[in-house]
Amino acid sequence: MILLRLFLAFAQIGFFAFGGGYAILPLIEKEIVNNLHWLTHKEFLEVVTISQLTPGPIAINSATFVGYKVCGVIGSAVATVSVCLPPVILVSIVVRFLKRFEANIWVNSVIKGLRPAVVALIASAAYSLVKGGGITEVKGLAIAIISFIILRTKKLDPILVLILAGIVGIIIY
């Protein structure tokens, strides 16, 4: 029964995962932390951090980690497949009919309406991470601001910025 619930939870998340990994974080948080209580908010922040550091999309990594916590290796496989299945199906359908609808004003209007909502989802995820303890003191805020400035102005690889932030964390904490 828990595997079915895990499948349905992540299939639902995958179905509404417009905008990619960061936009999906509020959906994962709402379902996994707030509704199902499979993770605490602190554990969710750890999953997000680990998912960011490991190769692959954050949504898939998050599903894998949550599934493992809930039901071990089988749970991780179920969660990973179920978060991927709806987008694969939707993209397959969209690609098949894309040429027919690419000039459709209604389709273009929907896409233009979704873009600001995706930005809002990403902003909501950032806010939730900060509010939930992702940054708990001035040192952490300084690391976040400096990392943001470096990413925006120096165009460094985000992985390098993460490694540097980890090294700075070792030094100042």
Summarize the structure.
The chain is an all-alpha fold and 173 residues long. The chain has helices at residues 2-15, 21-35, 41-53, 58-101, 105-134, 138-153, 158-172. The relative contact order is 0.12.
Helices and strands in order, then pairings?
Blueprint: H1 2-15, H2 21-35, H3 41-53, H4 58-101, H5 105-134, H6 138-153, H7 158-172
Helix pairs in contact: 1-2, 1-4, 2-4, 2-5, 3-4, 6-7
Q: Can you walk me through this structure?
A:
The protein is mainly alpha-helical. The protein has two domains: 2-132, no CATH class; 135-173. The protein is built from seven helices and no strands. It has helices at 2-15, 21-35, 41-53, 58-101, 105-134, 138-153, 158-172. Helix 6 (138-153) runs antiparallel to helix 7 (158-172). The longest helix is centred in the middle third of the chain and has 44 residues, at 58-101. The radius of gyration is 18 Å and the shape is globular. The relative contact order is 0.12. The model has no long low-confidence stretch (mean pLDDT 86).
Beta-strand content? under 5%
Mean pLDDT rating: 86
Rg over alpha carbons: 18 Å
Helical fraction: over 70%
Number of domains: 2
How many helical stretches? 7
Shape: globular
* SSE order: HHHHHHH
Query: Could you tell me how far the N terminus lies from the C terminus, measured between alpha carbons in angstroms?
Result: 43 Å
Q: Assembly type of the shown chains?
A: single chain
Assign the structural class, choosing from mainly alpha, mainly beta, alpha/beta, alpha+beta, or little secondary structure: mainly alpha
The residue ranges in which pLDDT falls below 50 over 5 or more consecutive positions are none
Largest sheet: none
